[in-house]
Specification:
Strand order of the largest sheet: 8-15-14-13-12-11-10-9
Largest sheet: 8 strands, parallel
Shape: globular
Distance between the termini: 58 Å
Strand content: 5-15%
Bound molecules: benzoyl-formic acid
Helix content: 25-40%
Structural class: alpha/beta
Number of strands: 16
């Protein structure tokens, strides 16, 4: 029998389990990450937890598969692990995990899902607690995340009648690209925390239904995997977090353009990631459920949740001065994602950009920031001072809190070209994979058809500001009807945990 000398035994790997010599196994390959420890965006501590052992399970949801192979110098790729030395560990199923698996089996069938809130409720029940904490969390007191929904409930319709609505058509164009819905899939990070296929669920469903997907910089799947999963002609945009190293950003953007991406959405509302307390508290609790004691009051970087741990590459020095550079490196239309005022909207316009997304990052950044739809009214009024409206050269999008076609129609009536939906599509694949996303599109279609008929609008162009009464939009005192999602699915924020309780 020929002995393959390049195979490395798990025993050998286990001998390199310290900061001075740290080897890990990922996808059956052995890597020497010793020199990389101080550079790891998530800090060295998390890697050291897997020093000398297989880290694949922890690695997968938060890194694209090629992250380690592209970032680690080739001489640190030590070889394949010898499969004969791998001891299969049968993992003990915890009581909590058992309940989760039972709930997964007992999920409502897709036929019983009637609205987008249902996906959220199912996702909450079946997601691992860490994933739910990361996805559902918002910043500080979570006021903005609630306001995002409440704002739509303060806008009322003024429907028109007797308009022959036998044929209604809700397809539209977004940045010049055909879209079967006036809704695009907005970027949400780390899709594999919630489903093994991650963002590919969205790509496959979007390809079947002619919906546009915005690919997140921090997807769990590799960028090329997501593009490869698209069908010919399928339109994809790219959401961009700008790297401190602009060469990395330049290469990424130009690669995306070469691969056929049709629009660049630069996130501008996250120079630092918001404090999402649900996510943070999750990290303070170890496997036994006991709160960890803060051992060192100073110096030690606190463990701050999944998102913050992997966001240190984002450049907080990004400014308007960088905009001409972006325009010089790509001919894709550039949209700023996360604008919140007419002042910045006008600057984006004057810089010759293709549009803006009025967004507060799903309530995950500045808490008590206003909703996108509230800002929309002021922004449209300001843009009208620059010329005729709507302006085909400058599109305004809105995201945050959209769960109903009625929300979509309100935003469009007030001047949005289309709206972005992030969490709702993500929850639909967490709960049901690709089928869930397809069902979510169908729900939007059914609701759009009905609501457009009832509103007296046969096409997206028929939606006008006179069709809504937004007089109460700036009133932030809650006179809205009880919101079931708010009351039952959103969790109250947890309080500080006492030792040994
Ligand atoms: O909202 C987020 O969680 C987000 O945008 C993000 C940013 C950096 C890392 C991971 C997620």
């Amino acid at each position: 029998m020929k002995i393959d000398m390049s195979l490395i035994s798990t025993q050998t790997v286990a001998e390199h389990a310290t900061a001075s010599s740290c080897w890990i196994i990922v996808h059956g390959k052995v890597y020497d990450v010793t020199d990389f420890l101080p550079e790891h965006p998530g800090g060295s501590k998390i890697i050291l937890k897997y020093a000398g052992v297989d880290a694949t399970e922890a690695y997968d949801p938060i890194h694209p598969p090629d992250a380690i192979t592209t970032h680690l110098p080739k001489d640190k790729h030590l070889g394949a692990v010898d499969p004969n030395t791998v001891v299969k560990v049968v993992k003990e199923v915890t009581a909590e995990e058992k309940i989760r698996q039972e709930l997964m089996m007992a999920r409502p069938s897709l036929d019983e899902i009637v609205n987008l809130h249902d996906f959220e409720a199912v996702a909450k029940a079946i997601l691992p607690p860490k994933a739910w904490a990361y996805y559902s969390s918002a910043s500080d007191d979570e006021i903005t995340i609630r306001e995002n929904r409440a704002a739509y409930q303060r806008i009322w319709f003024r429907p028109r009648v007797l308009r022959d609505v036998s044929v209604v058509n809700w397809s539209t164009t977004i940045l010049g690209q055909r879209s079967s819905l006036p809704v695009y899939i907005s970027a949400t990070a780390l899709g594999k925390l919630g489903h093994p296929d991650g963002e590919l669920n969205l790509t496959r469903a979007a390809g079947k239904h002619g919906v546009i997907q915005m690919i997140p910089t921090l997807a769990s799947c590799a960028f090329d995997e997501i593009v490869d999963a698209a069908v010919p002609g399928q339109v994809q945009f790219l959401q961009l977090y700008v790297n401190r190293d602009r060469e990395i950003t330049r290469k990424y953007v130009q690669h995306a353009e070469k691969r056929g991406v049709k629009g660049l959405f630069i996130t501008v509302d996250a120079p630092q990631l918001g404090r999402r307390e649900k996510d943070m508290r999750m990290k303070f609790v170890d496997e036994s459920g006991v709160a960890k004691v803060q051992e060192n009051q100073s110096g030690v970087k606190k463990d701050e949740g999944v998102a913050r741990a992997i966001s240190s590459f984002i450049d907080p020095s990004l400014s308007w001065k960088d905009i001409p550079w972006f325009k010089s490196i790509t001919s894709m239309p550039i949209v700023l994602k996360g604008v919140a005022t007419p002042e910045d909207a006008l600057m984006a316009y004057d810089y010759g950009l293709a549009g803006i997304v009025l967004s507060n990052h799903g309530g995950r950044q500045l808490d008590t920031a206003r909703s996108g739809v509230e800002n929309l009214m002021e922004v449209v009024a300001a843009l009208k001072t620059r010329g005729p409206w709507p302006n085909p050269k400058f599109e305004v999008f809105v995201d945050g809190g959209i769960r109903r076609a009625s929300d979509v129609l309100k935003a469009i009536a007030l001047g949005a070209s289309a709206v972005g939906v992030g969490r709702a599509f993500m929850y639909s694949f967490c709960a049901y994979g690709q089928d869930g996303v397809e069902k979510a599109f169908e729900i939007f279609r059914d609701e759009l058809e009905m609501n457009m008929r009832l509103l007296g609008a046969c096409t997206i162009d028929d939606l006008t500001p006179e069709m809504v009464d937004a007089n109460a939009i700036h009133s932030h005192v809650g006179l809205t009807p009880p919101d079931n999602l708010y009351n039952t699915t959103y969790q109250p924020l947890a309080l500080a945990k006492f030792k040994n309780k």
